[in-house]
């Protein structure tokens, strides 16, 4: 009897180190951020001088129009950019799945943007979109189009931010989908081909349904990364003009290091965590309707 009980406990003993790491590296910082949200703690002072203000920071956050404007911009950015990245990444993966001449060259070129440091990406695209010296405006002039002040116009600046993110992170989707395609069972594809399925039907009714778990993981990874994106937009526009490109992560940064309100910025971070967690859970439940019904 003791040996059977010990055998049941053995798996938990093996995962105990990982659980401890998660508690220390994830749960403790979250609890610390929640605790800090109840204090007014100016940047550069000892925590002993922090003043307990209760729910004041959370109430101020929920009543701020700037907070919800920034969150709306972030949601629109993530929705547009991630959708485009999924479509382009899947299309490129399907193209590179077939043996074509120069396959290694294409794969290397497509993956390079993801390898560039975010700060460098921001500097590169800030130069490309420059109103006076940017190559994009020079190309527009060569095509007979009028130059645009890309980073000075709210709509164009938002579009530039989306284009930059698509350029940088479509390769991530490409890698994930291409790995899934290369792991497909060829007998399944061959059976669909024998049954008379066209190339489009093979993609829509065979390949994509099998790749659904990979696509869900890719969607979640890009969505979460989009909500916490900071470096590129910090370098490109710093949230301007006005608040047209101020992502929520940049709003948190400004609250902490410009307004020097560490307690308020912690409250903002908790709000971001709650919203991203809720969206992630909703995507998982929608993608697994049978499991969702079983839980009910």
Automatic annotation (TrEMBL):
Q: What keywords would UniProt list here?
A: Cell membrane, Membrane, Transmembrane, Transmembrane helix, Transport
> What coarse category fits the chief subcellular location reported for this protein?
membrane
Asked if the record carries the keyword Transmembrane, the reply is: yes
Give membrane topology per the record. Answer: Multi-pass membrane protein
| UniProt-listed InterPro entries | ABC_transporter_permease, MetI-like, MetI-like_sf
Q: Where in the cell is it found?
A: Cell membrane
User: Which intervals hold domain ABC transmembrane type-1?
Assistant: 71-283
What is one cellular component GO term in this UniProt entry? plasma membrane
- Return the Pfam families for the record: BPD_transp_1 (PF00528)
* Membrane-crossing residue ranges in chain numbering: 12-31, 71-96, 108-129, 232-253, 265-286
Q: Which BP terms from GO are recorded?
A: transmembrane transport
In the record, the note on similarity to other proteins reads:
Belongs to the binding-protein-dependent transport system permease family.
Q: What is this protein called?
A: Sugar ABC transporter permease
> Organism source for this protein?
Hydrogenophaga borbori
